[in-house]
Amino acid sequence: MLPVDDLGEPVAVDQPQRVVSLVPSITEAVVVSVPASLVGATDYCTHPSDLDVQRVGGSKYPDVDKVMSLHPDLVIANSEENRAEDVDRLRANGIQVWVTEAPATVPMALKSLRRFFAMAWDLEPDWLTQAEDLWRETKPRKLTALIPVWRRPWVVVGRATFATDVLRRLGIENVYAEDAERYPRPTLQELNDKRPDLVILPDEPYVFTHDDGPESFPGLPYALVNGRHLTWYGPSLVEARASLERALDYGQG
């Protein structure tokens, strides 16, 4: 019986030699763990910083023809970021596609990665066991926070998201954690009316800075954080906890 991906689809992943990743955080995980196997990645696969492989376009709209021209024996996609029609086209052309789900928690993400590397390469990366150890603890709640990820229009982190669980494990409760949407689009007035203890401003996908973002939340303390550490799951989780704890200890007012 073939192994199945996160959506339950069978995928033959027996020691893939030519991998194209359409998921930036998993791109990093593959490069760190099985570097010789990666032959293609998206324009948004920014880590490792010296990554030198064929680029295949954006995460949501990759150039499928370019992907196929690389003759991969495995393509890694994500159910939230990648279009079903692109996955179907790749499979119709005989290319195996491993589709991941957008993880709602840190343990869910790490479990998915553990299963993927075990099935594809019979591998347990050192960074994976380190990340599991580092993120096992959940601190008692001490702050509430609002987490914008875009402006014009404003978009914030909502329910059942990886970032919400990352912050919860650091003792910070997302004020939109119970919202009906995973990424709500409230008005700025509504955001300010929430009166969180802290506004957390990441540097991706929107690049918030001290001069771009905090002025929209007068009177509220804020902290700038590394967006990759907040939202990527993979080797970055080894350094993410300490990085976020340092950044969130120094909210600016």
TrEMBL record:
Keywords of this entry: Receptor, Signal
Domain Fe/B12 periplasmic-binding: 18-253
Bilayer-crossing regions: none
Family annotation (Pfam families): Peripla_BP_2 (PF01497)
PROSITE patterns in the cross-refs: FE_B12_PBP
Keyword Endoplasmic reticulum: no
Gene3D superfamilies hit by this protein: Nitrogenase molybdenum iron protein domain (3.40.50.1980)
UniProt family annotation: Belongs to the bacterial solute-binding protein 8 family.
Name of the protein this chain belongs to: Helical backbone metal receptor
